[in-house]
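hi! just following up on the protien thing from before. the input was this:
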Amino acid sequence: MTVYFIGAGPGAADLITVRGARTLAACRVCLYAGSLVPRELLAECPPDARLVDTAQLDLDQITAELLRAHEEGHDVARLHSGDPAVFSAVAEQMRRLDAAGVPYEVVPGVPAFAAAAASLKRELTVPTVGQTVILTRVANRATAMPEGEDLATLGRSGALIVLHLAAKYVDRVVEELLPHYGADCPAAVVAYASRPDELIIRGTLDEIAAKTKEAGVLRTAVIMVGRTLGAEQFRDSHLYSPERERHVC
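and the predicted 3d structure came back as:
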């Protein structure tokens, strides 16, 4: 058997990849985060599949379910929202499976920041304006941030910053980024990206906190801050330039 860590995408059921949907349809066991993964995706599972909502399970209980499926010889679809590469807690699950000798694979998905950028109709890397994107979060009741990864330090780069799991702390985000980005820097908050109840909030850095709180956004959102969000006057990229040498060797 194999455990497949599948990125379910940011919210819309049809944003799962073709590979993810095919893998899901072939697994006799599916573990999913019921609070985040759209239930429509469960219709892709075999009719006799065992479905386990992990929303109220701890790591030991989740691992036990994976090991049970291994003992029974069933492939497992482990559905995670977004993409397993960032803020998914798959690393600790894979470490447990390594220790138990259980094979696994990772099927990537559409991350929340990509869905948010699509909703904003923005390319996050714009020639001569910004070519770097920082994905991060803020320290709260969860795991502390490593030294040197606080917003005050990261903000010195001036790069576009995307914050996950931070809408509840938008005041702190603004306070720590203002000295580096300036009050007029474009900012946006996208809640429930790609879902029917998606909410987009745009503004400048000095007003985005008030707008976010007024809208009542506390979770399931990404915050973006950076000059590329408002870039209009910029040089065309070299990629499609008529001056680029296009001869094939």
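The chain has a mean pLDDT of 93.
Strands lie at 3-7, 29-32, 50-53, 76-80, 104-107, 133-136, 160-164, 186-191, 199-204, 221-225.
cheers
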